[in-house]
Amino acid sequence: MATHWADFQYEIYLNGMSGTVPRLPTDLTRLEALAEHRLGPGPVGYVAGSAGDGSTARANRAALERRRIVPRMLRDVHERDLSVEVLGRPLPAPLALAPVGVLSIMHPEAEPAAARAAAAHGVPYVLSSASSTPIEQVAETMGDAERWFQLYWSKDREVTRSFLDRAKAAGFTVLVVTLDTPMLAWRPRDLDQAYLPFLHGVGTANYFTDPAFLAGLAKSPQEDPNAAVLRFLGLFADPGKTWPDLAFLREHWDGPIVLKGVLHPDDAREAADAGMDGVVVSNHGGRQVAGSIAAADALPGVARAVGDRLAVLFDSGVRTGDDVFKALALGARAVLLGRPYVYGLALDGQPGVDHVIRCLLAELDLTLALSGHATPSTVGAADLVADPG
User: Fold this and answer.
1) Cα gap 264→283, rounded to integer Å
2) Distance (Å) of CA 61 to CA 56, 69, 117
């Protein structure tokens, strides 16, 4: 029998018999405000902040909220199975933890805590290039659990090649290439605090432990931290990259490659033509282009264009189980969850991430069942209407 994620609610109610209530809210939309109270303005702004005046982040939420689920009755949902196959991998639910860098500013256990929570539930953990823990160390904490590696595509080919080799050697199976951040956007919350962790050597762990990166330094990062940071800033990303450059990645990575940040159907078609395996419909959680199309508004067009050729994944604005349902109905095969698990980590370490995963999947399980679905595969466009309001 498949796991019924919804049973988590009964576990909570039964624990309540002995006076125990959850340490964190079960409404995951409340976590951001809690994190705002408990963390300094620099770290919380770095995670919660967006490009410009925040209009894209707001649009992401509005695009999901505008779509309403139409539940269907008297369908057999007694036995449910949330498992899906994504990129040839069987997953227990249509969920992965999105790549978020610099997690040490949120909690001292940083990426390993989030990775262990993901591994405990079989949910893929996507490790950021800009993590505060090296690739190999995160892999070690995960055992043989499913893990994917997110690449910020460096100007330095040797560093890129070295990152791919290290990720492959450490058991990362899928490469997620972020295309929407060839440079940092105008982010007022960070600018107002003059807060950029990388300048202090935070979020640079993969670079400062990389042989190809270190080969370009006269002294070690410990001996001359400023020179190391300057080299990092000089090669972090490359605004000169174009579609033909994907051949280099294909040549040096033999597993699936997913392009993250795709919003236009023609870009999705380019990805398919270039031999990629998937796309993530994403606007970086509203952090890159102020005034951008909402990710959920871009999703149906991309899914129609390439859904038969590529795995179409989704992020940006996902906060709840019903958001995941809506993303599936709009054409996504699975979603990447970002900020909520980071707030869970900030507030309660690994147990906080565990709580967020279990809440989200319990709510998804219940939303599916109460809407007349026993599996994600039967969810489609007919299950949603646009809110006339």
Assistant:
1) 11
2) 9, 15, 26
Name the active-site residue from 107, 121, 284, 373. Answer: 284
Q: For residue 96, give the 3-state DSSP assignment.
A: strand
Is 252 marked active-site? no
257-262 and 89-91 as β-strands: parallel, antiparallel, unpaired?
Answer: unpaired
Distance, CA of 86 to CA of 15 (rounded, Å): 35
Q: What is each CA distance from 325 to 34, 319, 370, in whole angstroms?
A: 26, 11, 12
Q: To 5 degrees, how large is the angle CA 47–CA 229–CA 159?
A: 95
Q: Which residue has the tokens 């591994």?
A: 119
Instruction: Compute the radius of gyration of the chain from its Cα atoms.
Output: 20
Pairing mode of beta strands 84-86, 89-91: antiparallel
Supply φ then ψ for residue 313, to 5 degrees.
Answer: -110, 170
- What is the spatial distance between Cα 355 and Cα 114, in angstroms, rounded to a whole number? 11
CB 204 within 8 A of CB 198: yes
The two tokens of residue 96 are 């992965």
**Is the pTM for the entire model greater than 0.90?**
yes
> How far is residue 148's CA from residue 257's CA, in Å, rounded to a whole number?
10
User: What is the phi/psi pair of residue 279, to 5°?
Assistant: -135, 150
Q: What is the largest CA-CA distance in the chain?
A: 70
**Mean pLDDT split into 10-residue runs, the chain, 389 residues:** 85 98 98 96 97 98 98 98 98 98 98 98 98 98 98 97 98 98 97 97 97 98 97 96 98 98 99 98 98 98 98 98 99 98 98 98 98 98 89
User: From CA 30, how far away is CA 46, in angstroms rounded?
Assistant: 18
Q: Quote the Cα angle for 76-325-61, to 5°.
A: 155
Distance in angstroms (rounded) separating the CA atoms of residues 384 and 347: 34
Within 8 A by CB and 6+ apart from 262, the residues are 179, 268, 271, 279, 280, 281, 282, 302
Burial class (CB in 10 A: 0-12, 13-18, 19+), 13: exposed
Residue-level length of the chain: 389
- The candidate with the shortest Cα–Cα distance to 177, out of 121, 261, 112, 102, is 261
Task: Assess contact for 298 and 319: CB atoms under 8 A.
Answer: no
